Amino acid sequence: MKIKVVTDGSCDLPQELIKKHDIKVVPLHTFLNDKDSDLTPDEIIEKMNSGNTVKTSLVTPSEFEKAYSQILREYDGILSVHLSQKLSGTYNSAVVSARKFNDKIEVINSMSTSAALGAMVLKAVELSKTGNLKESAEKLREFSKKIETIFGIKVIDNLVKGGRVGPLVGRLTKMFGAKPVLRGIDGEIKLYKVTLGFKRVLREIVNFINNHKILDNRIVIAHIHAESDVEYIRAHTNVEIIVCEAGPTITVHGGYGLILVGFIGE
């Protein structure tokens, strides 16, 4: 089978890899003051700093149906890999749409987002070359059980407002001026540790990486203007690192200074 890999706009990978592997990215929606807008990450930060409301919204079933229909004119099957079902309705939209195409599409809940979703998508590209849609999907679902996400965030307000983390985490960080280290656990964002100062956040991330066996010895890092923090991680780990700036979806929730690491454990 000739298989195409599809993902959504929450997936963070360098554009050169998306183009190289011909990955189809179906964008999520970004709303500026309740109006659908096409904003860059820097524009999102500027608008939010100016007091505007910026939100994201899922991909609809009709949008997936349109993308799938076009792809299946050229391809025999699709591996559609998406952000966690617990973080967005996008996965459910893909499932609803895929039912209309007679088992030609396998939809995968990555149990993650951003850089970790990027790691899953790269693995999907590799598996798609086998030409076996069902077996590739089964392997991806096994990988989703081993997905790891860890990240540091300087401004937690948007994650709290969006319901991605509980209000208690927000209150704790504000009360003590602390910086949280967050993890993806079972498809949700959970508090991992609380530290004093962002340098300690980076140390926790480094320790987390170095204490895991990592599939292909490869991690993906997405960040928002945190180049020096990326270099800190690079200098203190011995893994292949794929780096990209986070896209609009993650920028809305993560804000300036976010650094997020994703990989598949062995």
Report on this structure.
The chain has helices at residues 15-20, 41-49, 61-71, 90-98, 114-128, 133-144, 157-161, 167-176, 198-210, 227-235, 248-254, and strands at residues 3-8, 24-26, 29-32, 35-37, 54-57, 77-82, 105-109, 147-152, 179-185, 188-195, 218-223, 240-245, 259-264. With 266 residues, the chain is α/β, with parallel strands linked by helices. It folds into two domains: 3-144, Rossmann fold (3-Layer(aba) Sandwich), CATH 3.40.50; 147-264, Hypothetical Protein Tm841, Chain: A,domain 3. Strands 10-9-8-13-11-12 form a six-stranded mixed sheet, sandwiched between helices. Strands 2-1-6-7 form a four-stranded parallel sheet, sandwiched between helices. Helix 3 (61-71) packs across helix 4 and helix 5 (114-128) runs antiparallel to helix 6.
